[in-house]
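Moderator note: this is an archived Q&A kept for reference. The question asked for a predicted structure of one protein chain; the sequence and the answer are reproduced below.
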Amino acid sequence: MTRQPRLYFFCLSAFMIGFIIASLIQFYSGRDFKRNFEMANSVGVKSSQHLQRGVNTNHVALKNGSGIQAESVSPKSKTNTNTNTALKKDFQEVRVLCWVMTSPSTLMSRAVHVRNTWGRRCNVTLFMSTESNASFPSISLPVKEGYDFIWGKTREAFRYIYQHHLNDADWFLKADDDTYVIVDNLRYFLSDKSNSEPVFYGHNFKLNSIEYMSGGAGYVLSKEALKRFVSVMDDREVCTVNVKKRSEDFEMGRCLKNVGVIAGDSRDNLNRTRFFPFQLELLLNKGSLPKDMWYWKYVIYKPTEGEECCSDYLISIHYVDPKAMHYLEFLVYNLRAGVQLAG
């Protein structure tokens, strides 16, 4: 072999060896950066009851007769062990039953997206309809279908829960099939409260002397509140027994007031709302809710418009379409903000 080909072969070999070494350095340094980035983003819970919004609880949904029972499992996301332990602890100690108001026509177009997103994080999830669907599953309630009968559906749903699931949870959340709920934030909010107190929480409205919670934003009853409601729901002197009523949330508030259940204040320590009855952008964008709108007439705690509208521990949003359910699920449980690494 002549000198020139040998020189060419030597240069080519040196280049390839250098390229391989450089690639290995880039690979391992990149892997270390990724590991450090994930570690920096998975800083754990400061205390066992301080739930971070970015933690994926990832409960497995299991069919349990007429409802869905959630079983806590190890999260898939690489989060701090203390955080995961705290979430499991709260899952077991702050037991929440979620019942979702749906219908035969919206079961597979809306309720299925609740089932596949936030519904997995409740201890028990029930879908209340007027037709049963064993494979979903949904529960058939003895009431006519339609918006005119949502008070009747609400009454029968709570009756069913009282008869079949009273001891499966400590708090009982009602939500619509177009409501998105951050269940971990609900547990955090309820973690220092007693379910033996007669109280319910949501987005507070008031009509005349009746304080009630927005039905669309969802509301949660303590076990004691549920017991009191069911014990008098058929008493005409205490509750409206006419099932053909649209104002389910108002009728619930009136009935609960008559049995001494307190309408609690769910705002955070900065007086920001946690349950919201509209799409979130309507409060984030100032002026989106006209001042002559009915909302401002009935809301008790008027929220600030703009970025300070809502709590960092927001619990619910209403009027969420199916695609947005999954969009919110990703933002809440998977998205991580970048951090500046030391050194």
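Archived answer notes: The first strand starts at residue 60 and ends at 64.
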